[in-house]
Design brief:
By secondary structure, the protein is mainly alpha-helical. It has a single domain, classed as DNA polymerase, domain 1 (Orthogonal Bundle). It contains 6 helices and no strands. α1 runs antiparallel to α2, α2 crosses α4 and α3 packs antiparallel against α4. The longest helix is centred in the first third of the chain and has 18 residues. The protein is globular and about 35 Å long. 21% of the residues are buried.
Length: 109
């Protein structure tokens, strides 16, 4: 297990997150790192944004899945010391709404 993963798990335990929530966080961060084939703490803000756009546009995930990825990646980047300038609230999608591609692009800018 990497030091970064251990730190993430430790932080989640200290925050009182359930076992299932910890698994979800690790899953999301793992797939982000796998997508770029590099450690997640070395990724730029733009790479995180591009990954979230990929989830929305290419993978066409449900709004709840994208929102989970947004939440996890925003929290992870904060825990790992990265300072991202995008606001989580600006990126969270409304459930039940299907966004046209032009709106998806503007949502992640």
């Amino acid at each position: 297990m990497t030091t970064l993963r251990q730190q993430l798990i430790q932080e989640l335990v200290l925050r009182g997150m359930s076992e299932r929530t910890q698994e979800a966080y690790i899953h999301q961060v793992y797939h982000l790192a796998k997508y770029y084939r590099q450690p997640p703490d070395e990724l730029s803000e733009q790479q995180v944004r591009d990954y979230l756009f990929y989830l929305a546009r290419e993978r066409q995930l449900a709004v709840s899945s994208i929102n989970q990825a947004v939440t996890v990646n925003c929290r992870f980047t904060a825990l790992s010391g990265l300072r991202l300038s995008f606001r989580k609230s600006a990126m969270v999608l409304k459930s039940g709404a299907s966004l046209p591609s032009s709106q998806i692009t503007s949502t992640f800018r």
